[in-house]
Design a protein that fits this description.
Blueprint: H1 3-24, H2 30-40, H3 47-58, H4 65-85, E1 95-96, E2 99-100, H5 102-106, H6 108-127, H7 141-155, H8 160-170, H9 179-206, H10 216-244, H11 246-252, H12 257-261, H13 263-287, H14 294-301
Antiparallel strand pairs: 1-2
Helix pairs in contact: 1-2, 1-3, 1-4, 2-6, 3-4, 3-9, 3-14, 4-6, 4-9, 7-9, 8-9, 9-10, 10-13
This protein binds geranylgeranyl diphosphate.
Length: 307
């Protein structure tokens, strides 16, 4: 069993439980809470919260209840993006994770509103992450504010939303067919930005006392390295998704990277991102003796396998 598999079997049920608990009280209307829960609690891999927690564990830090809660906020954003992505105006998918998509199950207007509520709810999750039971392990209010700011940046018009704008252009006959545009203006913001957030959030949550310890410069270098790691991982993840969907994309006339440069060159590009991510882990392990790279190496190694 890999270290990641063991970590997942410990933390996946806790992530699910946290999501379930927060979604149960997500709305004053229990029918609407149920629709929100339907969108989230339907078998996702929970890759993004798992990455945040894995980074915290890689620095040998304890995963407190507040850290667990913050880590799940990105899953609300991810779930909203899938609900809206499935809508007729976007990808028009009737199924998600083997079940009717939210609009197929509840109607289009409801799905738009479920997405809206999940996106706004994510920021409620971050800002209410501290629990009164474990006050001594609470996260400073300024840190929660910074994490909210970073999440909104990576999810919104500088991140996932603008990546989706690019992706929609790529579904049309006048698609740009330009590799750099596809990588930098579509894949990086659409897919890699949220994974970048997950990784940097894990780094920030691992170094909550560093300002007091007078090691701000080292910490900010570490945080940037983790952001880069998450983005490289996200780019490799997206290219692998393209390779897996090559035939389907052909049918739907979507120009993904393998269509532009061929399967072999796309696989090499994926490997370049993976190599760069491994180099980041090497640098982190050299600079930081408490950092154990094994878990994050496992994240990279499963690209191409069923995660
Ligand atoms: C609607 C603003 C807006 C954005 C949508 C995420 C997204 C952007 C579109 C989904 C389509 C897609 C193929 C995205 C690429 C990234 C990807 C493979 C997402 C699926 O993520 P997983 O594999 O999904 O983590 P699960 O189901 O495990 O959560």
């Amino acid at each position: 069993m890999t270290k990641l598999a063991a970590f997942q079997s410990e933390w996946l049920p806790k992530i699910e439980q946290q999501l379930k608990q927060d979604l149960a009280v997500a709305s004053r209307d229990s029918d609407f809470s149920e629709m929100m829960a339907y969108a989230v609690l339907n078998g996702g891999k929970r890759l993004r919260p798992m990455l945040t927690l894995a980074v915290v564990a890689s620095f040998g830090q304890k995963i407190t209840p507040s850290i667990l809660k913050v880590a799940t906020a990105v899953e609300w954003v991810h779930a909203y993006s899938l609900v809206h992505d499935d809508l007729p105006a976007m990808d028009n998918d009737l199924f998600r994770r083997g079940k009717p998509s939210v609009h197929a199950q509840y109607g289009e207007a409801e799905a738009i509103l479920v997405g809206d509520a999940l996106l706004t709810g994510a920021f409620h999750v971050v800002s209410s992450a501290n629990s009164t039971d474990t006050e001594n392990e609470n996260i400073a209010a300024e840190e929660l504010l910074l994490l909210s700011q970073m999440l909104s940046y990576q999810a919104g018009a500088f991140g996932m939303v603008i990546g989706q704008v690019g992706d929609m252009k790529n579904h049309r006959p006048e698609a740009k067919n330009d590799v750099n545009w596809l990588l930098n203006d579509v894949y990086a913001p659409k897919t890699a930005a949220l994974l970048g957030f997950s990784a940097i959030a894990g780094s920030r949550l691992s170094h909550l006392n560093s300002v007091a310890d007078n090691c701000e410069i080292a910490t900010s270098t570490t945080n940037s390295a983790l952001l880069t790691f998450g983005i490289d991982f996200g780019m490799a993840f997206q290219i692998q998704d393209d390779l897996d969907d090559f035939d389907q994309d052909n049918v739907e006339k979507i120009t993904s990277l393998p269509h532009l440069i061929g399967i072999k060159a796309a696989s090499e590009k994926r490997d370049e991102y993976l190599t760069h991510a491994r180099q980041t882990l090497t640098d982190l392990a050299t600079q930081n003796l408490t950092f154990d790279r094994t878990l994050l190496d496992d994240f990279l190694n499963v690209i191409g396998d069923d995660i």
